[in-house]
Amino acid sequence: MQRGSTLGQVPAETAGHREAIDNVRQTLGTIILGKDDEISLALACLLARGHLLIEDLPGLGKTTLAQALAKVLGLSYQRIQFTSDLLPADIIGVSIFQQRDGRFEFKPGPIFAQLVLADEVNRATPKAQSALLEAMEEQQVTVDGKTHPLPKPFFVVATQNPSDQIGTFPLPESQLDRFLMRLKLGYPNEESERALLTGTDRRAMLADIDAVIQPEQLEALQSAAAGIHISEPLLDYVQALVRFTRESPDIETGLSPRGSLALVAAAKAQALVQDHSGVFPDDVQAIFSVVAGHRLKTSSGSSYRSPSEICRHVLDSVAIS
What we know:
Elements: H1 18-31, H2 36-47, E1 51-55, H3 62-72, E2 77-81, H4 88-92, E3 93-98, E4 103-108, E5 115-119, H5 126-129, H6 131-138, E6 140-143, E7 146-149, E8 155-160, H7 173-176, E9 179-183, H8 190-198, H9 202-206, H10 215-226, H11 232-247, E10 251-253, H12 257-273, H13 281-292, E11 297-298, H14 307-317
Parallel strand pairs: 1-8, 1-9, 2-5, 5-8
Antiparallel strand pairs: 3-4, 6-7, 10-11
């Protein structure tokens, strides 16, 4: 399929969003150096109303990226440091009995922010990790039978260290599935690392960054992303990719319907970030690994061991009709 195919046009109201998206990307690029692709994917994740998991070694800028996203997007921000003794109440809050009034009063936890950083999420026990499930899926928390809505927009940006490091608890599949994307930042290139060594500390720079857009503009961008056109042939391609993951002998657990919905939402947001007139095959391929990699489970006899390898195998095996 060529880009000249009948893909429809971006709704007229999205034309005014180009400058806002470019400003966000450029500002983030002054903090996280040499990672333009990763920045674009992180932004696409939030524009698709998804939660983001950043997995990599310590010291590569995972936390800094989350903080920069909150600052640049003008979002209220809370950081939760996940540790082995963290309790669900430390995340969502508790009801405290007020003796003077003779009633319980709910004291909200740090989950009540527009962007919540779950730092080193896999260092907490599964019980603490599970406190995020309702919040991420339904944008609310329930305490003592009472439901409390979370702020809008609401995002969880979680960081995790590689699972082979000491003191980590693997995220269960149900938790991983709540994250629209899983990114890796990787080491900086030499030019970017030299700029880090000779320039201002990036965390110090965060204090001087102003919001580029406001939450209301972010919600407008999210609506614009959802309105990006995706053609029937592109939907055929997405379904062919999903079907291959379910039928391949190299894959034990393929993509669920939630996974296929995630592919479409992420591809639309990627198309908006890249200023495309609709969803192109390039957009689907750009987001496939970060959307599908943490949802696929390879079979024991497969020669493909890493998520990136199995995702590349899927993309190479499915033709674009």
